[in-house]
């Protein structure tokens, strides 16, 4: 078994699937984001100003600001 094989067997610490976030009834600000972080892996979320990095992090923590709502979202912790 190689290191790549071993890491593919790990259950992600965080697994976000098809996350979309909108304000009110508008078109989603964040659309269809999928992110998986495995144990022992450091990850960075990089993007232009206003691209939704903070909204995505706040959705992960369950702290969306007033007026923001998840349009679609699956978030799993530790499997």
Write up what this structure looks like.
A hairpin with a 6-residue loop joins strand 1 (14-23) and strand 2 (30-37). This protein starts with a helix and ends with a strand. Helix content is 19%, strand content 35%. A three-stranded antiparallel β-sheet has the order 2-1-3, with helices on one face. By secondary structure, the chain is of the alpha+beta class. The longest helix is centred in the last third of the chain and has 9 residues, at 53-61.
The largest sheet, given as strand count, sense and whether it forms a barrel, is: 3 strands, antiparallel
Structural class: alpha+beta
Contiguous low-pLDDT stretches (5 residues minimum) are none
Question: What kind of oligomer do you see?
Answer: single chain
Report how far apart the termini are: 22 Å
Number of H/I helices: 2
Query: Which percent bin holds the helix content?
Result: 10-25%
For the secondary structure, the number of strands is 3
Question: What is the typical, i.e. mean, pLDDT?
Answer: 89
Assess the beta-strand content as a share of residues. 35-45%
Shape: globular
Radius of gyration: 14 Å
Q: Going across the major beta sheet, what is the strand order?
A: 2-1-3
* SSE string: HEEHE
Short description:
This protein has 79 residues and is α+β, with helices and mostly antiparallel strands.
List keywords for this structure.
2 helices; alpha+beta; 79 residues; 3-stranded antiparallel β-sheet
Topology diagram in text:
Blueprint: H1 3-8, E1 14-23, E2 30-37, H2 53-61, E3 68-77
Antiparallel strand pairs: 1-2, 1-3
């Amino acid at each position: 078994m190689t290191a790549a094989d071993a890491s593919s067997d790990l259950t992600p610490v965080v697994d976000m699937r098809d996350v979309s976030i909108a304000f009110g009834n508008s078109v989603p600000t964040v659309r269809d984001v999928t992110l998986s972080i495995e144990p022992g892996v450091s990850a960075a979320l990089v993007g232009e100003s206003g691209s939704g990095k903070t909204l995505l992090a706040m959705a992960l923590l369950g702290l969306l600001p007033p007026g923001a709502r998840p349009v679609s979202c699956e978030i799993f912790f530790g499997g």
